[in-house]
């Protein structure tokens, strides 16, 4: 299990910067091609859009890993540790339910793209591959949240922790 967790933990952390570099190269190509008269490369817009979607979903997964995702923690941080833990578990559970619903809708969408043979406008890439990052992001983020839930339940991870709580050692 430890090996699987390490692979999952690092896959989007390493793929994200590669995708970001690809976006940078794509944008540079787009700018340079537009500076030269008559040489605009039309497919760079489509590639950039696809890569940006992939980067967003990888970023959501990494945000969960780093506890940097959006949350309503300002008020919750004022509560005692047990209530913080309960709110954290509920918060993560709701996020998991949302991701499972979104993932199931995405599977249906991917099925229809495949059935209808939908392709992107310029490059003619199957829309299945264009939208697949949504499903991958949902799966990776759900796995991360399930691991986080397990660690919180085992008191191995703190939810809604203030720096003061960690210094006091309230969660150890």
| Tally of structural domains | 1
Mean pLDDT: 84
The best one-word shape is: elongated
| Ends distance | 24 Å
Main beta sheet strand tally, sense and closure? none
Q: Which structural class do you get from the secondary structure elements?
A: mainly alpha
- Total of DSSP H or I helical runs spanning 4+ residues: 5
Q: SSE string, helix = H, strand = E?
A: HHHHH
Number of strands: 0
In the predicted model, the low-confidence regions spanning at least 5 consecutive residues are 165-172
- Helicity range of the residues? over 70%
Give the DSSP E fraction (strand runs of 2 or more residues): under 5%
Q: What is the rounded Rg? A: 20 Å
Explain this structure to me?
The chain has 172 residues and is mostly helical. The chain has one domain (2-168). The protein has 5 helices and no strands. The protein has helices spanning 2-35, 43-65, 81-116, 127-153, 163-168. α2 packs parallel to α4 (127-153) and α3 runs antiparallel to α4. The radius of gyration is 20 Å and the shape is elongated. The two termini are 24 Å apart. Mean pLDDT is 84; it is low at 165-172.
Short summary of the structure?
With 172 residues, the protein is mostly helical. The chain is built from five helices and no strands.
């Amino acid at each position: 299990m430890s090996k699987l967790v390490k692979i999952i933990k690092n896959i989007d952390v390493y793929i994200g910067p590669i995708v970001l570099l690809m976006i940078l190269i794509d944008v540079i190509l787009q700018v340079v091609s537009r500076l030269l008269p008559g040489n605009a490369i039309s497919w760079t817009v489509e590639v950039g859009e696809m890569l940006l979607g992939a980067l967003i979903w990888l970023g959501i997964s990494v945000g969960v890993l780093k506890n940097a995702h959006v949350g309503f923690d300002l008020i919750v941080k004022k509560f005692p540790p047990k209530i913080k833990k309960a709110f954290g578990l509920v918060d993560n559970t709701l996020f998991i339910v949302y991701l499972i619903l979104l993932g199931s809708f995405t599977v249906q969408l991917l099925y229809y793209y495949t059935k209808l043979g939908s392709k992107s406008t310029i490059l003619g890439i199957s829309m299945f591959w264009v939208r697949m990052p949504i499903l991958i992001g949902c799966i990776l983020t759900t796995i991360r949240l399930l691991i986080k839930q397990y660690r919180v339940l085992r008191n191995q991870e703190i939810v809604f922790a203030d720096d003061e709580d960690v210094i006091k050692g309230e969660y150890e």
